Amino acid sequence: MTEENYIKAVEANKIPEDDVIGVDVNGYNLAVYNVEGEFFATDNICTHGNAKLCDGFLDGHRIECPLHQGEFDVRSGKACTSPLTEDIKAYPTKVGDDGFIYISMIE
Ligand code: FES
After folding, report:
1. How many domains does the chain have?
2. The domain that contains 80 carries what CATH number?
3. How far apart are the C-alpha atoms of 95 and 23, rounded to whole Å?
4. d(C-alpha 107, C-alpha 105), whole Å
5. pLDDT tens by residue, the chain, 107 residues
6. Beta strand extents in the chain (DSSP E only)
7. 63: how many CB neighbours lie within 10 A of its CB?
8. Which atom of ligand 1 is least distant from the CA of 50?
């Protein structure tokens, strides 16, 4: 993966530790997570219904959907609990020298 695949998304210090925010990146609605100072990104809309994961509850590496409490692993996007049957897309992230989180939108 080359550098230019990464898109500048949001300042890392805008996301408190063990919290999640919703960010618009190039027209994509993403959820960006801070787990003990490590950053992860997934699509923001749950694969089960019309709920935003940024409104959910982050517990370690798991985000709980606010609507039916299904849980995804934010590292892989894997659907971990019912009623989820479909994984969510997860994206590689890195923090630049400028303090911004960069997200790779390339599959
Ligand atoms: S909408 Fe997310 S678990 Fe149902």
Report:
1. 1
2. 2.102.10.10
3. 15
4. 6
5. 456 689 999 999 999 999 999 999 989 999 999 999 999 999 999 999 999 999 999 999 999 999 999 999 999 999 999 999 999 999 999 999 999 999 998 65
6. 6-11, 19-25, 28-35, 38-43, 57-59, 62-64, 71-73, 90-91, 93-95, 100-104
7. 27
8. 1
pTM of the model: 0.94
- Domain residue limits at 69: 3-104
Q: Which of 48, 53, 86 to mutate to test the pocket of ligand 1 (most atoms within 8 A of CB)?
A: 48
Q: Ligand 1 centroid to 50 CA: how many Å?
A: 7
Which ligand 1 atom sits closest to the C-alpha of 70? 3
What is the model's pLDDT at position 5? 87
Ligand 1 centroid distance, CA of 33 (Å): 18
